[in-house]
Amino acid sequence: MSRFITGPFRNALTLLVGLLVLWQALYWVVGDVALRSPLQTAAFMGRFMTSPQFLPHLAETGRAFGLALVLAVAIGLSIGFSLGLNRFMSDVFEPVLVAVYSIPKITLYPILLLAFGLGISAKVAFGAIHGIIPIALFTMAAVRSVRKVYLKTGRVLRLPPTEAILRIVLPAAMPEIFAGLRIGFSLTLIGTLLGEMFASQRGLGFLLMNAIGLHNVDLIMGLTVLLAGFAGVASAVLLSLNKRLQART
Amino acid sequence: MRDVPTPLVLLRGGEKVFPPPGPSGRPVHALGPLDLELRRGEFFAVVGPSGCGKSTLLELIAGLSTASRGEVAFEGRPIRGEIPDGVGVVFQEDASFPWLTVRDNIAFGLKRLPLPADEKTRRIERALAMMGLASFAASYPAQLSGGMRQRVCIARTLVTEPKLILLDEPFGALDQQTRLLMGDEVLNLWRKTGATVFLITHALDEAAMLADRIGVMSARPGRLIDVVETGWPRDRDSRIVEEEAFGAITARLWRSLRAESMKSLGHAGAAA
Ligand SMILES: Nc1ncnc2c1ncn2[C@@H]1O[C@H](COP(=O)(O)OP(=O)(O)OP(=O)(O)O)[C@@H](O)[C@H]1O
Ligand SMILES: [Mg+2]
């Protein structure tokens, strides 16, 4: 039995229990006005998640996030590869990307709303914008740092360029690219939710904003826990995949 | 018209100058001018002080880089930056792919060859056995020692059955005993395949034991200052280190190299 509770799993469990204890303690100090206890939140979420209004909002956010993620990964990888494979281009565009990355993305939101309207596309675009640049920057650095001797090996074996990219550059750069994908994942999620919070009629972000407006503490806490839980689990899964990739090098 | 067969590789006035490393630096004259001829089927070794341009020479022959001046020809055809068919290279650095198992690393060499699957399997098994890697076929390079990873790279080159095998200090990471035994394996392979072997080494005894001819290079920019014929029979092995001629060859190599090695260490005055 205790055999199963070892290593990273035990660490995660310890962290979880620690957070719950902290939460409960905070609840005792602050009281009912601003917080709910873990148990109350769980009970509320149990009811809320089985109510008919929950699923459509979840589906909306899931769809927006999924689309944004696909876009961010596809565009980020393409930019990263084109720049990484070309020394001159990457020297020129890296500072530009870093500069764009440091702009608070929220300043772009009005422009996006004008371009895409209030529907799902604005959220998707806003989510993707958050993810593209970190994925591109990580991919570019990863591709550039692929050891020259691997590429020479490909040339001696007379691989055509596309095959050399697929069979050598991609796997060689994968551990580092994956680190970029992990960060891109979190930022795209944040971007999508922010998009929903500020201009949308549907989705978990919209529900959260609404709950804040109505001071619905139950719903605020419930949604926060739900989103944090999702991000935490996803991040843990990606991290363990990343570790497995890195273990080989 | 001519009864002399064309050499497999012919280098005439080959030189390599690298562009300056920084905006204020000077161009690096790494190699040559150098004339070299590799005869079909011979075992040619190159020794030279460190940094004299041995790897640079290998890349010119492989077609991995172009000569700044001079000509390189493979089977009578000039090569300018494109890799001729039938050349295999084992690099000085570890070039095993960490994301593939030992077996998949070796199989990678066969990716582009239109061979039936069972022939590929046969070649891979034979290379695994020859390089002593059979029990590590499913391991990843990270689980192997440096010397074993280098053997993976040799095996990956062998399966393509190249006409010309270029080896850049492949046994640098091995201990002396293993080096002698690997030397026997390379000799075996050279005899069985009939390939031409070009071997860079820093060990004079290794060159003296393995090669038909040994080129001695000067300090950078590397030129050939001596070519020593060993006159060994084709079916030799590491036991020739006991022969009298072996000592004489090693001594001659060292005589040619001593002054050059000192130069490359910066003892220019002591060279006389
Ligand atoms: N791409 C490059 N750009 C600039 N200089 C280079 C480059 N490659 C090699 N050199 C320089 O050319 C010279 C010869 O290098 P090379 O690697 O051919 O020497 P080597 O004889 O193989 O040395 P070692 O015995 O250490 O392997 C060195 O001074 C090196 O610094
Ligand atoms: Mg070298």
UniProtKB/TrEMBL annotation, chain A:
ABC transmembrane type-1 domain mapped to chain residues: 58-238
SUPFAM superfamilies: MetI-like
Location(s), subcellular: Cell membrane
InterPro entries, A to Z: MetI-like, MetI-like_sf
Domain of life: Bacteria
Coiled coil: none
Entry annotated with the keyword Transmembrane helix: yes
Entry membrane topology: Multi-pass membrane protein
Pfam families: BPD_transp_1
Recorded GO CC terms: plasma membrane
PANTHER family for this protein: ABC TRANSPORTER PERMEASE PROTEIN MJ0413-RELATED, ALKANE SULFONATE ABC TRANSPORTER-RELATED, MEMBRANE SUBUNIT
Family, as annotated: Belongs to the binding-protein-dependent transport system permease family.
Protein name: Nitrate ABC transporter permease
Organism: Alsobacter soli
Automatic annotation (TrEMBL), chain B:
Xref: InterPro entries: AAA+_ATPase, ABC_transporter-like_ATP-bd, ABC_transporter-like_CS, ABC_transporter_ATP-bind, P-loop_NTPase
Keywords, comma-separated and alphabetical: ATP-binding, Nucleotide-binding, Transport
GO molecular function: ATP binding; ATP hydrolysis activity
Domain ABC transporter per the UniProt entry, residue ranges: 11-244
Keyword Ribonucleoprotein: no
Statement: the UniProt record of this protein carries the keyword Transport: yes
Family: Belongs to the ABC transporter superfamily.
Tree of life domain: Bacteria
One Pfam family here: ABC_tran
SUPFAM superfamilies assigned: P-loop containing nucleoside triphosphate hydrolases (SSF52540)
Protein name per its UniProtKB record: ABC transporter ATP-binding protein
CDD domains: ABC_NrtD_SsuB_transporters
Transmembrane segments: none
